[in-house]
C-alpha cells in the first residue's frame, strides 16, 4: 500500500511539490505564532523594566520590607540582619532569579543634638549600613579615637553646615532621663556610582542618619530605652531572567507574599500587570494579522488539491469499480496527504523559524536589518503548533475525497462540469458580508475617540477591528465574481451573432464553467487586494509615526543643559534664587567645526499663566527663542497635503522679530481667550519648584503678533493618567516670546540647546546623551507592536506575491492539460492555432485580468476605508498632524511587475504547450477515455 502511495505522488510530482510548498508555508506561518508571541513578549518585558528604571529613577526589580523589630527579641544588629537575610532567602526560593544586590539598613530613633560649631536642636538618627564602605567614597575624613566615630552624607553636611572632625552631641533617652553621647564626624561620604543597583535608597534618601560601625551600633542599643529597632531591606533581582514563561508564576508568588506579609512590597508586580495587558494585545494582534494570510494559503492549497483530485477522479473510479470501499479510498488518500503533511511539518518548522527571525529583523516595510533579535528564539510550543497545523492540513486535503468516492460511477456519468449556482450566490452572502463589513466600519468610526483612549490605557484591542478589512476584501471579491458572471452573459447576449467560431467557443466555455472558475477569481482578488492593503497600511503607519516624531522634536537634536540652582535664605525670611548659565560658546563652536548648520537656545516653561480680559489659562507652554537662530535651526514638519499653518512659519518669526514685546500664540489659545492679532495679554511665571510649588514671581504684558496652528516642538494634545490608569485628553496652549525679552523680565532660567546637524553628521559626532529625532524614530521602530506589524505585513506581502504567481501559473497550466482533448478536437475541425490562442486570451481577460484589476481597485478602496481606523492602534494620540494615508508607487510597481511576469510566463508556457500538442494523440486520448 505504501509503495502504491509513493508511486501516486511521483506520477504528479510537480503538483504535489506545489501542494507541499503550500502546506509548508501554512505550517511555517502557524509555527511563527508562538515564537513571535514569546519573542515580542520578552521584548515588551525588557522595555517595560527599562522604562520603569528611567521614569522612576530606581532599579526596576526590587523586593523590599520595611518595619520594626522588638529589641527584646533581637538584642543586637546581627540578629536583625540575619532575620532580613532569611526573608531574602525565602523570596528567592520561590522567585528563582539571581540576586544583583541587596541593601540592608537598620536604625535607632536617635534624638535631638547640638553640634560643636554652633548647631542647635538638630535631629539625627543612628544607623548601620553594612555596604557603606564598599559602595561609598570618602570625600573627607578625620579620626578621633576619644569619641564614637560616625559618617554622614554630603547632603547632611550641606544641610547643617557640618565639617569633618566636628563633634555631634546627641541627647538620647536611657530609661532614667536624657544622656549625652558624643560623636565625631570621621567621614563624609558620597555614592561611588549612584546608578549602582545597590542604591535602592541613596544617601540623600536616608535623611539625617549618622552612620556608625556595627560595634558602635550594638553599643548604642544599650543606651536606648527604645523598644523597637527600625529596618529596611531592599533586594535587587536580575529582571532579565523574568520572561514570558515565568512571569505569571512569579507574579502569583509575589501576590502571595503580599497577602501573607503586609510589610512586604515590590515594584515588579505593577510592571508585570502592564505586561499582561500588553501581552493580550500582542496575542490578538498576531492572530488578526496572521488570519488573512492563513486564509490566503488555505485558498492556495484548496486550489491545488482540487486540481489533483480532479485529475485523479478516474483513479478513484477504477478503485471503486474494483471493489474498494469508500473508507479504503479515504485511508489511501489520507496516507498520501499524511506524507505531504509530515514533509511540510519538517520544512515548516525550519521555515517558520527563519520567517519569524526575518520578520523580527524588520524596522520598516520590506526593510530587513541586522539588529539584535536575541529575544526571538526557538520555543517548544512551535512543535505543538506544527503538529496541529499538519493535522488540519491532512483533514483539509482528505475530506473532499470522501465526497468524491461516493458512488463515483454515477457521478462520472452525469459529467464533471457543475452548472449548479453556488449557495453563496443564491443567498447573496456577498451582499450580506459587505453590508456587515460596512456596519462594523461605521460603528468603529463612531467610537474612534473611545478606542484611542482604550489603546492609551493599555487595554486589549478588538481584533475584529483589524479583521474587518479582510471581511470587506472577501465580500467584495465574491461580489466581483457575481458581477463578472453577469458581464460575461451580457457580452455574450449583445455580440453573440457577431462572434467568430473561436470567440463563440470561448464564451461557451466561460458560461459553462463560470461557477467553477469563480474560485480562481476570488483567490486572485484576495491576494492582490490583500498585498496592496498590507503595503499601504505599513507605509501609512511608519510614515505617520516618523513625521509626528520629527514634528515633536522640532529639530535634528536637542541637548538639555544642566543648570545649577543657587538658593539663599535672606535675613527677613525670604528666599533668593538664581541659575548659573553653562558655557553656550561650546555649542556655537560646532558651527565653525562644520558639525551643525544651526544652534540656538530655546527656553521652555510649562507652568505659565496667561490672562486676557476676563479669561485666563493655566499651565500654558512658553517658548522663548531667538528668531534668527531658531529659523536657521528648527524644522516644522508639514502635513501631507499642505502646510499646517495658513502661511509659512518663517512669516510668523518675522512678525515676532519686529515686536520685542510681541508673542506668537496657538490657535486654541486665541479661541479660548477670544484673542486676535494686535490684542494684548499678560503672562506670568512661577519660581522653580525646588523653591516653591505655587508662587508667581514675575509677569509681562505682550502683544499678539501672530496666531499659529502648529510650531516646531509644540504638541497641541497631551494625555494624563490618574492613579487608576484612566487616561484623559488635555489641550496644551502655546505662547512664543523673544528670548532676550524673557531673560530681561524673568531672569535666566534653564534652556535646551537645539541643533540643526550638517549633512552627513549624526548625534554621535557631538554628545551621546542628546535627544534626536532619529533616535526616537529608531526606538519606535524597535517597539514590539510596530515590529510585529511591519514583520507580519512584510511576510504577508511577500507570501501574496509568491502564492499569487505560483497559483496563477499552475491553475492555467493544469486547465490547459485538462482541456487537451477539447483543443485537439478544435484543431481537427480546422481551427487555427492563432484562433485557439485568441480563445484562451479572451478567457484570461475575464477570468484573470478582470479579477486582477478588481483586486487592485478593492485594495485601494480598502486602504481608503480602513487604514485610518486601524492606525488608531499605533497612533492613538490626537496630533497637530493628522493621520494621512501613504501609497508608495514602488510597492504598486513591485506587485504589478510580479503579476505581469507571472501572466507573461503563463502565456508563454501555454503557447508552447499548444504548439507541442499533437492532434492525433489528443483524439486517441479521447477514444481511450
Binned strand content: 15-25%
Q: Percentage of helical residues? A: 55-70%
Largest sheet: 10 strands, mixed
Ranges where pLDDT stays below 50 over 5 or more residues in a row are 409-415, 925-929
Number of discrete helical segments: 28
The mean pLDDT is 83
Alpha-carbon distance between the termini? 26 Å
**From the structure provided, what is the oligomeric state, counting identical versus distinct chains?**
single chain
Shape: elongated
Number of strands: 25
Radius of gyration: 38 Å
Alpha-beta content class: alpha+beta
What's the topology here?
Blueprint: H1 2-11, H2 13-56, E1 62-70, H3 77-94, E2 99-115, E3 122-128, H4 132-135, E4 136-141, E5 148-153, H5 154-160, E6 167-173, E7 178-191, E8 209-211, H6 214-223, E9 228-237, H7 247-260, E10 264-266, H8 268-311, H9 313-321, H10 326-360, E11 362-364, E12 367-368, H11 381-404, H12 408-413, H13 423-426, H14 429-446, H15 448-456, H16 463-495, H17 501-553, E13 557-560, E14 564-569, E15 575-580, H18 585-592, E16 596-612, E17 615-625, H19 627-633, H20 649-658, E18 662-666, H21 667-673, E19 680-686, E20 696-708, E21 717-721, E22 727-731, E23 734-738, H22 739-746, E24 751-757, E25 771-772, H23 773-781, H24 784-818, H25 820-828, H26 833-870, H27 889-916, H28 919-928
Parallel strand pairs: 3-8, 5-7, 17-23, 18-20
Antiparallel strand pairs: 1-9, 1-10, 2-3, 2-6, 2-9, 4-7, 6-7, 11-12, 13-24, 13-25, 14-15, 16-17, 16-19, 16-24, 18-23, 19-20, 21-22
Helix pairs in contact: 1-10, 2-8, 2-10, 2-11, 2-24, 7-8, 8-11, 8-16, 8-17, 8-24, 10-11, 10-24, 14-16, 16-17, 16-26, 17-23, 17-24, 17-26, 24-27, 25-28
Amino acid at each position: 500500500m505504501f509503495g502504491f502511495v509513493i508511486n501516486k505522488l511521483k506520477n504528479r510530482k510537480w503538483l504535489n511539490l506545489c501542494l507541499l510548498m503550500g502546506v509548508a508555508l501554512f505550517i511555517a506561518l502557524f509555527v511563527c505564532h508562538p515564537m513571535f508571541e514569546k519573542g515580542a513578549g520578552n521584548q515588551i518585558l525588557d522595555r517595560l523594566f527599562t522604562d520603569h528604571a528611567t521614569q522612576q529613577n530606581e532599579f526596576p526589580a526590587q523586593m523590599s520590607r520595611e518595619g520594626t523589630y522588638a529589641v527584646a527579641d533581637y538584642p543586637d544588629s546581627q540578629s536583625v540582619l540575619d532575620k532580613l537575610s532569611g526573608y531574602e532567602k525565602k523570596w528567592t526560593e520561590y522567585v528563582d532569579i539571581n540576586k544583583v544586590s541587596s541593601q540592608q539598613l537598620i536604625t535607632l530613633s536617635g534624638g535631638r543634638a547640638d553640634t560643636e560649631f554652633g548647631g542647635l536642636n538638630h535631629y539625627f538618627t543612628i544607623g548601620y549600613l553594612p555596604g557603606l564602605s564598599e559602595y561609598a567614597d570618602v570625600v573627607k575624613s578625620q579620626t578621633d579615637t576619644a569619641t564614637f566615630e560616625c559618617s554622614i552624607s554630603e547632603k547632611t553636611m550641606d544641610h547643617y553646615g557640618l565639617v569633618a572632625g566636628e563633634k555631634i552631641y546627641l541627647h538620647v533617652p536611657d530609661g532614667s532621663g536624657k544622656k549625652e553621647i558624643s560623636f565625631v564626624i570621621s567621614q563624609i561620604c558620597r555614592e561611588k556610582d549612584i546608578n549602582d543597583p545597590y542604591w535602592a535608597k541613596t544617601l540623600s534618601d536616608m535623611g539625617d542618619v549618622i552612620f556608625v560601625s556595627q560595634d558602635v551600633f550594638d553599643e548604642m542599643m544599650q543606651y536606648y530605652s527604645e523598644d523597637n529597632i527600625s529596618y529596611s531591606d531592599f533586594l535587587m533581582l536580575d529582571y532579565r531572567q523574568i520572561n514570558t514563561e515565568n512571569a505569571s508564576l512569579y507574579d502569583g508568588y509575589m501576590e502571595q507574599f503580599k497577602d501573607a506579609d503586609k510589610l512586604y512590597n515590590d515594584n515588579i508586580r505593577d510592571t508585570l500587570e502592564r505586561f499582561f495587558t500588553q501581552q493580550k494585545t500582542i496575542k490578538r494582534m498576531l492572530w488578526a494579522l496572521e488570519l488573512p494570510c492563513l486564509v490566503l494559503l488555505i485558498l492556495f492549497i484548496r486550489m491545488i488539491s482540487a486540481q489533483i483530485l480532479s485529475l485523479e477522479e478516474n483513479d478513484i473510479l477504477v478503485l471503486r469499480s474494483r471493489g474498494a470501499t469508500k473508507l479504503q479510498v479515504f485511508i489511501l488518500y489520507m496516507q498520501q496527504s499524511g506524507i505531504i503533511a509530515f514533509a511540510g511539518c519538517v520544512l515548516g518548522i525550519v521555515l517558520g523559524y527563519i520567517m519569524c527571525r526575518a520578520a523580527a529583523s524588520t524596522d520598516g516595510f520590506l526593510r530587513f536589518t541586522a539588529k539584535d533579535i536575541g529575544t526571538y528564539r526557538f520555543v517548544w510550543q512551535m512543535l505543538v503548533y506544527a503538529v496541529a497545523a499538519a493535522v488540519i492540513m491532512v483533514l483539509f486535503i482528505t475530506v473532499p475525497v470522501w465526497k468524491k468516492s461516493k458512488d463515483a460511477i454515477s457521478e462520472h456519468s452525469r459529467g464533471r462540469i457543475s452548472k449548479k449556482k453556488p449557495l453563496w450566490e443564491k443567498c447573496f452572502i456577498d451582499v450580506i458580508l459587505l453590508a456587515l463589513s460596512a456596519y462594523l466600519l461605521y460603528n468603529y468610526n463612531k467610537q474612534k475617540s473611545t478606542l484611542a483612549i482604550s489603546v492609551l490605557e493599555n487595554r486589549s484591542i478588538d481584533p475584529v477591528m483589524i479583521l474587518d478589512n479582510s471581511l470587506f476584501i472577501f465580500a467584495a471579491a465574491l461580489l466581483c465574481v457575481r458581477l463578472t458572471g453577469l458581464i460575461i452573459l451580457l457580452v455574450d447576449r449583445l455580440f453573440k451573432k457577431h462572434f467568430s467560431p473561436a470567440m463563440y467557443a470561448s464564451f461557451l466555455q466561460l458560461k459553462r464553467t463560470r461557477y467553477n472558475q469563480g474560485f480562481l477569481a476570488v483567490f486572485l482578488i484576495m491576494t492582490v487586494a490583500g498585498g496592496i492593503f498590507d503595503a499601504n497600511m505599513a507605509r501609512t503607519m511608519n510614515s505617520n509615526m516618523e513625521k509626528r516624531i520629527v514634528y515633536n522634536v522640532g529639530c535634528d537634536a536637542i541637548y538639555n543643559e544642566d543648570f545649577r540652582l543657587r538658593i539663599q535664605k535672606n535675613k527677613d525670611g525670604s528666599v533668593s534664587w538664581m541659575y548659573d548659565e553653562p558655557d553656550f560658546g561650546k555649542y556655537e563652536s560646532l558651527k565653525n567645526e562644520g558639525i551643525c548648520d544651526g544652534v540656538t537656545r530655546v527656553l521652555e516653561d510649562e507652568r505659565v499663566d496667561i490672562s486676557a480680559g476676563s479669561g485666563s489659562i493655566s499651565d500654558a507652554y512658553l517658548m522663548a527663542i531667538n528668531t534668527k537662530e531658531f529659523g536657521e535651526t528648527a524644522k516644522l514638519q508639514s502635513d501631507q497635503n499642505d502646510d499646517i499653518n495658513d502661511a509659512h512659519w518663517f512669516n510668523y518669526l518675522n512678525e515676532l522679530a519686529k515686536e520685542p514685546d510681541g508673542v506668537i500664540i496657538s490657535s486654541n489659545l486665541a479661541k479660548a481667550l477670544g484673542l486676535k492679532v494686535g490684542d494684548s495679554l499678560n503672562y506670568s511665571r512661577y519660581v522653580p519648584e525646588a523653591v516653591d510649588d505655587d508662587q508667581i514671581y514675575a509677569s509681562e504684558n505682550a502683544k499678539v503678533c501672530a496666531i499659529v496652528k502648529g510650531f516646531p516642538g509644540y504638541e497641541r494634545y497631551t494625555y494624563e493618567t490618574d492613579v487608576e490608569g484612566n487616561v484623559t485628553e488635555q489641550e496644551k496652549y502655546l505662547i512664543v516670546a523673544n528670548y532676550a525679552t524673557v531673560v530681561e523680565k524673568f531672569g535666566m532660567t534653564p534652556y535646551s540647546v537645539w541643533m540643526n546637524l550638517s549633512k552627513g553628521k549624526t548625534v554621535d559626532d557631538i554628545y551621546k546623551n542628546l535627544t534626536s529625532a532619529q533616535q526616537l524614530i529608531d526606538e519606535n521602530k524597535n517597539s514590539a507592536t510596530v515590529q510585529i506589524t511591519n514583520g507580519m505585513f512584510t511576510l504577508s506581502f511577500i507570501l501574496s506575491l509568491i502564492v499569487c504567481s505560483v497559483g496563477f501559473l499552475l491553475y492555467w497550466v493544469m486547465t490547459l492539460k485538462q482541456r487537451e482533448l477539447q483543443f485537439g478536437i478544435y484543431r481537427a475541425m480546422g481551427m487555427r492555432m492563432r484562433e485557439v490562442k485568441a480563445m484562451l486570451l479572451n478567457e484570461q481577460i475575464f477570468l484573470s485580468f478582470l479579477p486582477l484589476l478588481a483586486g487592485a481597485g478593492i485594495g485601494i478602496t480598502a486602504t481608503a476605508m480602513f487604514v485610518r481606523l486601524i492606525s488608531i492602534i499605533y497612533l492613538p494620540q490626537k496630533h497637530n498632524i493628522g493621520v494621512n494615508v501613504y501609497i508608495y508607487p514602488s510597492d504598486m510597481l513591485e506587485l504589478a511587475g510580479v503579476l505581469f511576469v507571472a501572466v507573461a510566463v503563463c502565456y508563454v508556457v501555454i503557447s508552447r504547450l499548444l504548439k507541442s500538442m499533437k492532434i492525433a494523440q489528443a483524439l486517441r486520448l479521447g477514444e481511450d477515455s
